[in-house]
Specification:
This protein is mostly helical. Helices cover 50% and strands 10% of the residues.
């Protein structure tokens, strides 16, 4: 409770966490796929909430002061919050704890409509790396859409080591060492990205492989056996991901 009501934000703690955050940014940008995703969201949604750098920029983080962090926290703690508890617990104790937490003083923020960039290409270069990492991104429905389960089923069918992309492009054609799809969604929009890590000279061939699979998906429906296999995999992953109490509490908070 003291952490929420009266955090210290001691200068030495703030400096340590700033250094940790900057190191995490540098580590991520030293990895091709990490760099791609660091730059992807600001490219897709320039000047919008979804386009902010998740961990900030190093120069920005470096200049934060304990006073700035404290002011941000005072603003943040006034926002509406949800407490979710899972497992064995005393209900009265949890309610008493919740009543001692700071009361929200502001209305829930309203998200503006998301506007996608009109740009089609983002090229990033890492000197000394003889690799090509490709993301082919398609706009999809939001997390609130009734079509979201269908998108999840398609993503499951395409992604992973047993997915269609991996089987066709890696196992059969040897075009890449890592192939999958990546799904991201918010309450306003979403995307599915076809990803492959390959050799530079195979870049165009890999892109053609993506296009052929997309045309194939458009030309004929998935076989019933493929749909059932993807559905079974989704069910198994759901139950595995909900084995911990933390994951259950997290889902309860999101659904509140």
């Amino acid at each position: 409770k003291n952490v929420l009501n009266a955090p210290a934000f001691a200068p030495e703690d703030v400096e340590r966490d700033k250094a940790t955050q900057i190191a995490a940014i540098m580590t991520r940008e030293d990895q091709p796929l990490g760099l791609a995703f660091r730059k992807l969201m600001p490219f897709l949604f320039p000047g919008q909430v979804q386009g902010y750098y998740r961990m900030g920029e190093p120069d920005q983080v470096k200049n934060y002061s304990p006073e700035q962090v404290k002011k941000f926290w005072e603003k943040q703690i006034a926002q509406p919050w949800v407490l979710a508890v899972s497992g064995q617990f005393d209900r009265d104790e949890v309610i008493a704890f919740a009543k001692n937490l700071p009361l929200p003083q502001a209305d829930a923020p309203q998200m503006q409509e998301t506007v996608w960039t009109s740009q089609k290409d983002l090229l990033l270069h890492m000197p000394g790396r003889n690799q090509s990492h490709i993301l082919l991104v398609f706009e999809t429905v939001s997390a609130k859409s009734e079509d979201n389960p269908k998108l999840e089923l398609l993503n499951t069918y395409l992604s992973g080591m047993g997915g269609m992309l991996f089987t066709e492009l890696r196992d059969k054609q040897g075009l890449g060492y890592s192939v999958t799809t990546i799904k991201w969604q918010s309450e306003q929009t979403g995307f599915i990205a076809f990803y492959i890590g390959t050799e530079p000279e195979k870049t165009e061939i890999a892109l053609d492989g993506f296009k052929k699979i997309i045309h194939q998906l458009q030309a004929r429906p998935l076989a019933q056996a493929d749909l059932e296999g993807a559905a079974n995999q989704m069910e198994g992953e759901y139950y595995r991901s909900h084995q911990s109490l933390g994951s259950r509490a997290s889902e309860a908070a999101r659904l509140a």
